[in-house]
Design brief:
Layout lengths: L1 E8 L2 H12 L7 E6 L14 E8 L3 H15 L6 E8 L2 E7 L12 H14 L8 E6 L2 H23 L3 E2 L5 H12 L4 E6 L6 E6 L15
Parallel strand pairs: 5-6
Antiparallel strand pairs: 1-3, 2-3, 4-5, 7-9, 8-9
Helix pairs in contact: 2-3, 4-5
């Protein structure tokens, strides 16, 4: 987005500073376009005119800010040929796709590194208070593949509960992964799921619907 302001001053520098002040930015954050040079008064009394300039600021969109940050991080991690592509879902939702050699290292154990980088990228995208912009970070379709794996796991656990009538607990997962499991369980009659534990140990529990231990459990659990 382009913002600009026109201002005058005794010198070009002063006019530029005045224009930047109107935009609320430092002179280092804007470009200066000279519109009129200052002219001196004749004999120090007659005529003369101030300098006139236009200060221009090109503001990046939230996803562009996030992409620039991610690119800087992966370069520091050693992915020197990495690229970050932006795919907009809509104005408040975008996906950043990382390509390049040796990019699998960015995923980390069960996506922990990728999730951490995604969290930081989202913070960068929302430094300006102009509404919330959701950023999703992906490497080589990892998210889609992980989602399929979790959905299969959810169905497997549901079938085990239906077969044995016993409650099953899964390993700790982040909120995004727990929501995927809960979504699958809700589609299967006879079982319910809920989250238990605190912080890093929060995990999903699956049990038979209507049993003594699950009688008060909702079919729409919180992640």
């Amino acid at each position: 987005m382009r913002r600009e302001a026109i201002a005058t001053g005794d010198t070009i520098e002063k006019a530029f500073a005045n224009a930047c002040e109107m935009l609320g930015v430092a002179t280092t954050e804007a470009e200066c376009e000279l519109l009129e040079k200052p002219t001196k008064k004749t004999f120090g009394i007659f005529g003369g005119s101030p300098a006139k300039v236009r200060a221009v600021v090109i503001e990046k969109r939230p996803a562009e800010l996030a992409a620039a940050y991610v690119d800087e991080v992966i370069q520091a991690m050693g992915v020197t040929d990495g690229t970050v592509k932006i795919r907009y879902e809509h104005e408040t939702d975008s996906e950043l796709e990382i390509d390049g050699s040796n990019v699998r290292m960015i995923i980390g154990h069960r996506g922990e590194t990728l999730d951490a980088l995604q969290y930081l990228a989202c913070l960068v995208a929302n430094t300006e208070k102009n509404g919330y912009h959701r950023v999703t970070l992906d490497v080589g379709d990892y998210r889609a593949k992980r989602k399929e794996t979790l959905e299969n796991l959810g169905r497997k656990m549901a079938q085990k509960v239906l077969r044995t009538g016993k409650i099953c607990s899964l390993e700790p997962m982040n909120p995004y992964e727990r929501r995927i499991i809960h979504g699958v369980i809700q589609e299967i009659d006879g079982v319910v799921s809920w989250s238990d534990g605190q912080e890093q140990k929060r995990h999903i529990v699956v049990g038979p619907e209507g049993s003594d231990k699950t009688r008060n459990r909702s079919r729409k659990p919180k992640a």
